[in-house]
């Protein structure tokens, strides 16, 4: 709810995610990507409302994440079933405690490990995330952006959660660190059979890591595609997805005209129609999702 009225931040989001697979959710800022992640973890504001269901296979009793109470989410899901790699690791880390102390606390909470094994377990967790042992006794403000990201990743890996949720994990990193960060996340998915859901606006990072790509616009997933087909041939089928790729400097470098609509003031019909060169009168109705694309005029052969 915003300003006393309901705002649909995410609508009709539907996807599955298999063990060892990486699904990347892409879209412009404000399209609802992080809201979706927060909903899965039960971290939405108290006045938020959710409908629908979200199940994590293998979770006891078939728990619906969207219907679970705070106690269940805190004790059963966060850290243990879903590991979160946050958007701002420096803000996520406790500033007055060393990385070692935070790792030890997380290991103790999630695995029940006690001293004297606790120190070794924390060092093992750091090693899994390629965090250097000689930096464990430093505080977050003493770390570079890349090392803070590795510390946050180490914390996310402690509970051996079958799903890693990485919310804009490359924000503020230079290109080399972006590549190293996504490679590390991919390595954990491959080595441990974890499912990985990465949220990003960085299509170059998405291309590097994704098995499948979900494109979100104005709170709705408008295309869900195999990454090889999406970034190669035949290419994206939704005009917004095509526009995102064409805006990349290494491609056509042609920005999408206009601005995305406010989630609290969506137009009638297709939310992208005002920016779309393919729009017709048919776009005055909301397009249904057909073969993974929500568009009245999808490109049959991609780009």
How many helical elements?
Answer: 10
Query: β content, as a range?
Result: 5-15%
In total, the number of domains comes to 1
How far is the first residue's CA from the last residue's CA?
Answer: 38 Å
Quote the average pLDDT: 91
* Poorly predicted ranges: none
Strand order of the largest sheet: 2-3-4-1-5-6
Q: How many beta-strand segments?
A: 8
- Give the biggest sheet: 6 strands, mixed
Radius of gyration: 20 Å
- CATH homolog superfamily: P-loop containing nucleotide triphosphate hydrolases
Helicity range of the residues? 25-40%
CATH topology (level 3) name: Rossmann fold
What report would you give on this structure?
With 303 residues, this protein is α/β, with parallel strands linked by helices. The chain has a single domain (22-235), classed as 3-Layer(aba) Sandwich (Rossmann fold). It has ten helices and eight strands. It has helices at 33-41, 70-77, 89-92, 99-111, 117-128, 145-157, 175-192, 203-209, 227-231, 239-246, and strands at residues 22-26, 82-85, 163-167, 195-200, 212-217, 220-226, 289-290, 293-294. Strands 2-3-4-1-5-6 form a six-stranded mixed sheet, with helices on both faces. It starts with 21 loop residues before the first strand and ends in a 9-residue tail after the last strand. 38% of the residues are buried. The model has no long low-confidence stretch (mean pLDDT 91).
